[in-house]
Design goal:
256 residues, Rossmann fold, 7-stranded parallel beta sheet, 14% strand
Length: 256
């Protein structure tokens, strides 16, 4: 198995892409820390992993809070003695134009989506230096392509691409690889929240599928497999990259 004897922390893994990553990483042999602000959701992910004979434990964590992230680091090291892979996945999405969010909504989105990558990377880095491990963060195609009514979200996902490249340059000489993934519409999590915020959620879902060359939205497991590749030795010469996993987003055309 590609990740045998590796310990992996995945934030926001109580649902969506994060949950799929946790399950697939465990199948690949990793010992997983399922971190989420929603502890019952994290515990359900762990239940699913244990049912498949994987190794995992749940930890409540608010990635925007340095005290909470420090506690996550402590529990990880206490349980697994090391950290090999950090997957920065936790995120929130406010579906509003730049005029409409409150200051609290704007700041919360920045604190979780960008601040969470900063805090988790900063506090786990001393241990990643020891293991010569790597970081995989979830950006989005919205880091490149802007869509209506998600100004703040697009800003945070573009920032993650920049942070990824900066960390790759700063820590490559220490043997640490840093990459990010830019999914298109995925059948889970934040995308579902976006669909439900639209006047006609079903039509929004259909329309989203048509934006992709593959004529469908993606599955969270398809993103998880790319994360496993980036975390594994198969990607030993890959760093500072933003892997687009979007089914040809933006190039979808009606079938002939």
């Amino acid at each position: 198995m590609k990740l045998q004897n590796r310990s992996v922390v995945i934030t926001g893994s109580g649902s969506g892409i994060g949950r799929a990553c946790a399950i697939e990483f465990a199948k690949a042999g990793a010992s997983v820390v399922v971190a989420d602000i929603d502890l019952p959701a994290a515990e359900e992910t762990v239940r699913l992993i244990l049912a498949g004979n994987g190794t995992a434990f749940a930890c409540q964590a608010d990635v925007s809070n340095p005290v909470s992230v420090a506690a996550l680091v402590g529990k990880t090291i206490q349980s697994y003695s090391k950290i090999d892979v950090l997957v920065n996945n936790a995120a929130i999405q406010v579906n509003k134009t730049i005029e409409d969010p409150t200051f609290e909504e704007w700041n919360a989105q920045m604190a979780v989506n960008v601040g969470g990558v900063f805090l988790c990377s900063k506090l786990f880095l001393p241990y990643l230096k020891i293991s010569r491990g790597n970081i995989v963060s979830m950006s989005s195609v919205n880091g490149y392509f802007v869509e209506p009514s998600c100004a703040g979200y697009c800003a945070t996902k573009a920032a993650i691409i920049g942070i990824t490249k900066a960390m790759a340059i700063d820590h490559g000489h220490e043997g640490i690889r840093v990459n990010c993934i830019c999914p298109g519409y995925i059948d889970a999590g934040l995308a579902e929240g976006y669909f439900q915020s639209q006047p006609n959620p079903l039509q929004a879902r259909i329309d989203a599928g048509k934006l992709h060359a593959l004529w469908r939205i993606g599955k969270p497991e398809e993103v998880a497999q790319v994360a496993i590749f980036l975390a594994s030795d198969d990607a030993s010469f890959v760093t500072g990259s933003a892997y687009v996993v979007d089914g040809g987003f933006g190039s979808g055309l009606p079938p002939k």
